[in-house]
Structure formats: structure tokens, C-alpha cells
Amino acid sequence: MAKKKEPAVKDLSTEEKIKAAAKKLFTQKGFAATKTRDIAEEAGINLALLNYYFRSKEKLFELVMKENIQLFLGVMIEKINNNPLPFDEQIVFIVSNYIDMLLENPGLPFFVLNLLQSGNAPDGNPDDPLFKNIEKMRNSFLHNIKAAMEKGEIKHVHPLHIIANLMGMLVFPFIARPILMARSGNISQAEFEQLMIERKKLIPEWIKGMIKVSGG
Amino acid sequence: MAKKKEPAVKDLSTEEKIKAAAKKLFTQKGFAATKTRDIAEEAGINLALLNYYFRSKEKLFELVMKENIQLFLGVMIEKINNNPLPFDEQIVFIVSNYIDMLLENPGLPFFVLNLLQSGNAPDGNPDDPLFKNIEKMRNSFLHNIKAAMEKGEIKHVHPLHIIANLMGMLVFPFIARPILMARSGNISQAEFEQLMIERKKLIPEWIKGMIKVSGG
DNA sequence: GTCTATAGGGTGATAGAC
DNA sequence: GTCTATCACCCTATAGAC
């Protein structure tokens, strides 16, 4: 904390500039397709500085990308684990927070998917701490779904259907945005965001419709 | 058609072997992360043959990947355009065909997303014929949604919500499969397929719940 | 048609001056 | 801390023998 002397004027340090540029390019194009030279150019710095601050392209990738998600995941896992909330309201909470996060980091889902697909990313294997944390969140939520089912609070379907639907509805618009916003039917940036905000209210309703105990 | 002499015994020609290997690797790891050397090895042929049959890595990519989807898209677009079916049944048709296709080509969604993300793929721009065809399918479906709304057949919501939800529920399990099938909660290959087959029946029901005219 | 050998170009990383 | 210059490597693509 006292190690580094920050300039009074916060005009983004070289280190921060690199991180920002790297984040942009990595999320946009994935690991393999991003060149260190592109990052240097985008940051307006010299190529050598990249290796001076971060040991390697891999290390930079790991650092930059994970900083974002891990923070978010930590909060979510904690909230999902300690929940006295009825299931309906858990959904509302998850949806709202997720969409807020995605609006701020629209490139993140694609990055995570790339990571999971293994091979494109430097450590896309299941032992990756990020993977572990996503799995953890999944398991916490899975646990809550099962609990709600046993209480008769929600319908009996395979819990993975619920997770797949919830996650799909949350994340898909962000990765398939070029299709949704296709040229001819044109949709502006503002309209896209408006739709996503609408979804904060709609997704919980849709999910509720799926899990509602119908028979009594 | 008469240009090339096919061997009587269909023991996969060198050309076919390359295409098969390329398809596997490209869908698995994306364009940038796939090396021509890997393709050659996977196909059990010499590296030079790859350039002999297909002019370049790019050309091979384009050819191999698009062959699959374009065929499927053509059928879907035609069916969606000429449809005397009520909206409910259109959904059933789309869902059923889509899931069948995805079970046969599980790597395809990720490939398309990579393509759309532009930069990773050689021609991930919106002028790409594949992109055009996806857009075409989207627009056809969009048209049908609007028609059904005007007939009062379904509820009034922004049509893109419906498309996003339908596509998300169809496609997401295939791209996020490593999460759904995560280690600890383990799910086997067979169980995954079983779930997807279940979804053929369930997704139309869920969608129906979303678009049902409630008031009368 | 299939191979070996290599050209030709780009990428990540570092040495060393300032 | 920042730069220039350069190395060592790996990749795609091709020339040329068989």
C-alpha cells in the first residue's frame, strides 16, 4: 500500500493504462487473437513496458480478467449462501445484480465462455480458480433450488433446467448481441440497454411462470 | 461433379480427413488458437497437403464451418417463412429441429459466437454470408412474432425478448456445458443428452407461458 | 498426390542505453 | 521507468523431389 508512490494527479499510471487496454482487447477478442503489440498500442505505451510491469502476456491476462469476475462472484456466492429469502426474491436479487454487472462488463460472458472452452485461454482447465468459483456459485444455487422444491415452494423439474434457463436468459443477449442488434432491424446502443433493464423485471416473472406449482 | 474420381471404397479421402479434423479443432478451440499443424496431425496427414487441397487456413475454416450451418439455416428460413402454423406450433418446430441439430453439432454455437465477436475469426464482419443468413432467420421469425401479436394470438412484449429467450434457452446449455456439467455435481454425457431431449418438450411450454395472453 | 525442407513473416520476450 | 533494437521461436505457405 505504501510501496508505490501515486502521482497527485490521477492521470492513469502506465500500469493502469496497460491493464485497461488489455482488458478491452482480451474481452473483445479472446486470449489467442490478442497481440501484445496491440495492447501496447492501445495503451499508448511501449511494448517492452508490458513485460516490465507484468511478467508475461499470460500473467497479464490472468490478472486483468479475473479481477473483475472474482469480485462479483464473491458477493454473489456469499449472498446466495446466506439467504433467508423466499425463492422468488432470490431470483429477483440474482437477476438484478447480474444484469447490472453485465451492463458494466458486456464483454465478460464471452471471456468466461472462452475460458471454459479450454484451449484458447492459457489455463482453461477445470482446476482454474475462476472455474472453481463459478462452480461454487452454481452449487450454492443448486442447493437452494432443491431446498425450495422439498418445501413445495416450487415445481419439481430437473434443477439444471432452471439454472440453464436463468443463466441463458441473463447472459445470452450479451454474447449474441450482434444478432439481436442486426443491421436491418436496427437497434441502437441505448435501446439495447433499455431492453436489458426491462429484463430485470421480466426475467423473474418468466422464471416464476416456469417453477410455479400448478396443481396445488 | 464428374471432375473428381471417388474411390469405390469410401475410406475417407485425404480431403475429407482434413475437413473432419479441421471441423473438430475449429469448433473446439476457435480459429486463432487452432494451428494448421494440429489439424494435419489430427487428420494423420502431412502439413503440406492442407495447403494443397485448401489454399489457406482461412479458406479451410470458412469452408468447413459454414457447410454445416448454412444447410441448416436454409431449411429453417424456408420453414419459418412459409408457415400456415399457429405460433405455438412454430415454436415446437423450431425448438425440436434446433436441438436435434445442436446435439449433432455441439461445437457449432461457440463457433458462431466466435465469428460474431469479430476479430478472432478471419471474417467476423457483418457482411459475411453466414451472418446475413442468421439475420435473415431472425427477421423471418421477428415477422411471425409481430403477426401473431397483431392477431392477438400472443401477448405484447418486445419481440426481441422472445427471440433472446428462445435462443438463449436453446443454445446456452451447449456453450456453458462445462459449468452445467461441473465436476462435483457430476453429470454424464448421457444425462446431458437426456436433459436436452427433455428440453424439446419443456422449452415450448416455457415460451408459451411467457407469451400467453393473460387478460382474456 | 504425397512428402521433405525451407522460405518468409509475425509474435512474445529481453538486453541494454538513456 | 521508458525506450530501441533484436533474439529466438513458431506459424503459414510454398518449392521441388519423388
Question: Which characteristics define this entry?
Answer:
10 helices; mainly alpha; 216 residues; homodimer; 71% helix; Tetracycline Repressor, domain 2; DNA-binding; Arc Repressor Mutant, subunit A; elongated
Describe this structure in words.
2 copies of one chain form a homodimer. Chain A has 216 residues and is mainly alpha-helical. Chain A has 2 domains: 8-55, Homeodomain-like (Arc Repressor Mutant, subunit A, Orthogonal Bundle); 62-211, Tetracycline Repressor, domain 2, CATH 1.10.357. Helix content of chain A is 71%, strand content 0%. Chain A contains 10 helices and no strands. Chain A has helices spanning 14-33, 36-43, 47-53, 57-81, 87-104, 108-117, 129-150, 159-175, 177-180, 189-211. In chain A, helix 5 (87-104) packs parallel to helix 8 (159-175) and helix 8 runs antiparallel to helix 10 (189-211). The longest helix of chain A has 25 residues, at 57-81. The first copy, chain A, is elongated and about 65 Å long. Chains A and B meet through helix 1, helix 6, helix 7, helix 8 and helix 9 of A and helix 1, helix 6, helix 7, helix 8 and helix 9 of B. Chain A binds a DNA duplex (18 and 18 nucleotides) through helix 3.
